């Protein structure tokens, strides 16, 4: 699942393969960009911003993409067989003399003027893996709505950018509270260490092929995807429920013994808390 660390990895691969090279092929397969042609332009850099990718191109242009749940950018040597999915899932192709980047299942693809990038990423909070990271501002953003469940606040990219469902569940486990605990009820000492803990997790995983929050080989995550297997700490079966307003699937995992706070009763329907859908 693409989160801040995997988007950082994608940006690094794209930058290493494309930056400083002239595009010899450009194919943007979305209706609004069908006539756009970037061939002959040099790729300047590829920069991650939270879960967004900004590919800056000569002439003051930026190709903006977002992976959401299952989008991916794959890079292939010229002549290498593409293997990211069927052809009908390809949304973008950027080729140079020796490499081709192929964007599969990209739900968001825009071409905009580079000075206008704030239009698509200006709403984001401090980026956990970016140069703008500000732990104090991130914590202030999270605490601004004290009644909001912690899990929802962590996913809101306006508070801090880069956390998705996996890190939401893992952070709440490491803090010892459920994702349904109101942010304002989080003990002050745990709230104070939350931003640094989140940053440490993403930084530790941005260069790893397999994400790990436990430090245990073969047992990579404490809770996410592990229901109903036993908790790695106490042996209680891990539980899973949906969280959010219902606009998207938000599977949320927790240990009912190790994590204090409110949680859905066993067998209860998914949580539906109506609020504006947070931007990514």
TrEMBL record:
PROSITE patterns: FPG_CAT (PS51068), ZF_FPG_1 (PS01242), ZF_FPG_2 (PS51066). Its EC number is 4.2.99.18. Signal peptide: none annotated. Residues 222-260 form the FPG-type domain. The keyword Hydrolase applies. Residues 242-280 are annotated as: Disordered. The keyword Zinc-finger applies. CDD domains: AcNei2_N. It catalyses: 2'-deoxyribonucleotide-(2'-deoxyribose 5'-phosphate)-2'-deoxyribonucleotide-DNA = a 3'-end 2'-deoxyribonucleotide-(2,3-dehydro-2,3-deoxyribose 5'-phosphate)-DNA + a 5'-end 5'-phospho-2'-deoxyribonucleoside-DNA + H(+). Keywords: DNA damage, DNA repair, DNA-binding, Glycosidase, Hydrolase, Lyase, Metal-binding, Multifunctional enzyme, Zinc, Zinc-finger. Residues 2-103 form the Formamidopyrimidine-DNA glycosylase catalytic domain. Belongs to the FPG family. PANTHER family: ENDONUCLEASE 8. This is DNA-(apurinic or apyrimidinic site) lyase.
């Amino acid at each position: 699942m693409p989160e801040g660390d995997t988007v950082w990895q994608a940006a690094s691969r794209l930058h290493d393969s494309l930056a400083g090279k002239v595009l010899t092929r450009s194919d943007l397969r979305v209706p609004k960009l069908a006539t756009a042609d970037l061939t002959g332009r040099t790729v300047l850099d590829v920069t991650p911003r939270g879960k967004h990718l900004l590919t800056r191109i000569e002439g003051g242009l930026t190709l903006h993409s977002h992976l959401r749940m299952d989008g991916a950018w794959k890079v292939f040597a010229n002549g290498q067989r593409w293997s990211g999915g069927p052809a009908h899932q390809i949304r973008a192709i950027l080729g140079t003399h020796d490499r081709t980047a192929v964007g599969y299942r990209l739900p968001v693809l825009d071409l905009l003027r580079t000075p206008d990038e704030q239009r698509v990423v200006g709403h984001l909070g401090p980026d956990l893996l970016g140069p703008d990271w500000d732990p104090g501002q991130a914590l202030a953003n999270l605490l601004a709505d004290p009644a909001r469940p912690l899990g929802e606040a962590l996913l809101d990219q306006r508070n801090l950018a880069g956390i998705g469902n996996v890190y939401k569940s893992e952070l709440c486990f490491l803090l010892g509270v459920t994702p349904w605990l109101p942010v304002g009820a989080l003990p002050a000492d745990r709230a104070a260490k939350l931003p640094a803990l989140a940053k440490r997790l993403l930084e530790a995983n941005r260069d790893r092929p397999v994400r790990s929050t436990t430090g245990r080989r073969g047992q990579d995550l404490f809770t996410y995807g592990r229901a109903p297997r036993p908790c790695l700490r106490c042996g209680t079966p891990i539980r899973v429920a949906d969280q959010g307003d219902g606009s998207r699937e938000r599977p949320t995992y927790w240990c009912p013994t190790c994590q204090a706070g409110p949680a859905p009763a066993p067998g209860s329907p998914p949580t539906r808390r109506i609020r504006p859908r947070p931007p990514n």
